[in-house]
Every structure is written in structure tokens, then in C-alpha cells.
Amino acid sequence: MGSIAITNGTLVDGAGTRRADLLIQNGVIAEVGEKLDGDTIIDADGLVVTPGFVDLQVHFREPGGEEAETIQTGSRGAALGGFTAVVVMPNTTPTIDSAAVVRQIHDLSIDALCEVVPSAAITVDRDGEALAPMAELVRSGVRMFTDDGVGVQDARMMRTALEYASGLSHLADGFEIVLAQHCEVDALAAGGAMHEGEWSSRLGMPGQPAEAEELMIARDVALARLTDGRVHFQHVTTARGVDLIRAAKAEGLKVTGEATPHYLCLDHSAVASFDTVFKVNPPLRTPADVTAIKAGLLDGTLDAIATDHAPHTRQDKERPFLDAPPGMIGVETAFAIANTELGADIEKLVELLSINPARIAGIDDRHGGPIEAGRPANLALLDLDEQWTITGAALASRSSNTPFEGRSVRGKIRHTIWNGDLVVTNGEATR
Ligand code: DOR
């Protein structure tokens, strides 16, 4: 692999914003300076150079759901979206709940275009009945546990998982293992296909109340306090959910939260189209909730933007609304949506898409860090002003269930460099 010089770019990372050239050699940033030269030169005039993005929540469907996505196609989309690392969710077939399946994920990721970081289930088969073999999973490299797709319903099970996880840091170089929760109380949400409110009444559709999410956030805040454990709240969607996390942080509890691009610009009125592309779990909420999610991201209550990239085949999404599976794709469009809709400057976006998620996932030794000599070369080069129109069929994902079809957005990934390898150049994947 020859060296790469990135010239004339504007660097944005946790250390601030500055003009400098970069030289990348043997997978690492060899030099940051002036007038640097390399075997390949990327003229980054007018572009922003940031640490590569980190997605805390993707469903790449492998093993078991390859007709909707594979690690290869999902990671190609992620690289095109500026991500150099993604945390894959364990709701695969089989479930990622043993070291053997973690190894399988690593084997399947051999040709991926970004780092694929397996999370593992909190409970065996994600059915809430028995704790997964967490120590074995941490030894195999897992740092984040989640039953995503469902929440851990039983408070005692969640308490035990938090207590157990707290005792596993010695197997993880001191890193505090994080339990990520999909907050949804089944007793309230079961059977609901959208948010319970004005639009579910108008459409005669069974709904899921906001309280289904808020009750579990409140419970897990209490359990974080009780156990001194680390909880990460996945895809938060409600204003009161944001308030609960804000209060928990003010108290000093070890909690973090994320929002997805769709919750910061779509609301439940979209379901009036009966288009199943707008069916997602948790459901699209009210405009007031959308406003609160954005405020939560901007004031630091929510730490990260994660996509919850959830591909589904056309056949599955063509089922009637009540039967269709929930989920939307998002890795390739996340940056553009956030850049267009959030009202944040690029420094804040880098924090939400790179610095904070890398820290939460425990991969900040190689992602989300400062752009400086000696660091692994995981970078995204962005054009903040390029205007483009999202078309599902043009995205790299094997599925095309984007809720942003036809939407005009601003901001495009020009190049992505992962471990010194140019995996995306001029907006095209190199493999
Ligand atoms: O809408 C969703 N789809 N939410 C989830 O939490 C799971 C995901 C999926 O796996 O399809």
C-alpha cells in the first residue's frame, strides 16, 4: 500500500478546526504538517477532514438474513456514509450470544469496508429468560451488550446483568462494559404499529404510547443508580425520555443516549401514507418530540447519532402495514440528514457521529480520536455544501427501505479512509 497525502483540507476533530496536510503511511497518520507529498495525492481543498464516523447501531443481517443485507453490502453503505466502524446488533440468526457467533461475525467481516464490531445479547436468544455468557463474550472482545429489537422486560434480570457487567472490566482492560437498552415495555407496546396519539386515532391504527419507552428509561435510570452500572439508551424518541436522561446525567449516573437521523426529522403524520417504509420501532413520534430530540442532541443530553440501519426486503415491506417488519436503512444518508436537519456546526456533528460513539463503544483507541501522527488512519473527507437527492435504488444496501426517498439534502462524503486504505474515493466505493 503506497502513501497517501491529503492536502489543503480543513481538519476538524476534538482538538478543534485547523488547516493542515496529512501523510498516511502503513495504515497510520505518519505526519500532520505543511506541503506534504505522497504516492497518491488527495486535494481536499474545500473539504473537511474528520475522524471516521462510528455507528453504534446497525443491523447487517448476517448470519441468517442475507436476502436483506450482508456484512459486505452493509459495510459498503457504511463506508459511503463516512463510517469507519459500526457496531452490529445481535438480532441475527443465530443470535450473537456466544463467542462462537462472535468469531463467525469476525470471519464474515474479512472483506468488509469498515471495522465491524460485534455487540452481543444480554439474554440468551434475546428472549429475556437467562443471562448470556457475558464473561466469555467479553473475553472474545465484546464491549457492548444489548437485546436490541426488544428491551429487557424483567427489572431483576436487568439488575443482575448490570451487576454482572460491572464485574467484568478486568477482562476488558479496565473498560466499563455497557448495557445498551431498546426501551420498550412490551405490556404497553405489544400490537402497536405506530405512535399512539392523534394520527393513530385518525388512521384507526393500534398505537404504542410514549410511556412504553419512558417507563423503561425511568426504570433503567433507577437501576443504573442502584448498581452503579453503565447504561446506554438506544434510539431515544420522546421528549420525556430526553428529560429523564438529562436528569440522570445531572445526578452523575453513568448513562448515555443516542438518537437516529429519522427521529430528528420525521413525525407520526408520515404514517398517513400507509407506506410501510415509515414503520419503525420505536415509532415516529410527535413534532414536539422531534424538537426535543434535536435539543437533546444539541445540549449534550444525547451523546451520539446512531442509524439503527434496519434493512428489510421489498417482499417483507410490501406486506400490509400491521404485518410489515419495522425498520429503515440509514448508514449512507445519516451525515447528510444530520447536516441538513439538526442545525449543528461541523464540530458538533463530529462529536455526535465520531468522538462520542467511539468512546461509548470502547474503540476510541482507533476511532474518533484526534487527527495526529501515530493514530490509525480512519478518516472521512466531507463536502459540507454538496446538494444531492436521496434515492433508495442508488444506495449500496441490498434493501432500499429508506424513509428519505426523493429528499434533497446537503453534505456528501467524498472519501473514506479505513486503516489507511482508501475504501471510498470521489463518492464511489473502491470494492
Ligand atoms: O425498527 C426497528 N427495526 N427497530 C429495531 O429495534 C430493530 C430493527 C430491526 O432489526 O429490523
Q: Can you characterise this structure?
A:
The chain has 431 residues and is of the alpha/beta class. The chain folds into two domains: 4-48 and 375-386 and 402-429, Urease, subunit C, domain 1; 53-361, Alpha-Beta Barrel (TIM Barrel). It has twelve helices and 21 strands. The strands form five sheets. The protein has a seven-stranded mixed beta sheet, covered by helices on one side. β16, α9 and β17 form a beta-alpha-beta unit. α7 packs parallel to α8. The longest helix has 18 residues, at 210-227. The radius of gyration is 20 Å and the shape is globular. Bound molecules: (4S)-2,6-dioxohexahydropyrimidine-4-carboxylic acid. (4S)-2,6-dioxohexahydropyrimidine-4-carboxylic acid binds at residues 59, 91, 148-149, 182, 280-281, 308, 310, 325-327.
Summed up:
By secondary structure, the protein is an alpha/beta fold.
Could you say which small molecules are bound to this protein?
Answer: (4S)-2,6-dioxohexahydropyrimidine-4-carboxylic acid
Number of helices: 12
What class do helices, strands and sheet pairing give?
alpha/beta
CATH class of the largest domain: Alpha Beta
Terminal CA distance: 15 Å
For the secondary structure, the number of strands is: 21
The overall number of domains is: 2
Low-confidence stretches: none
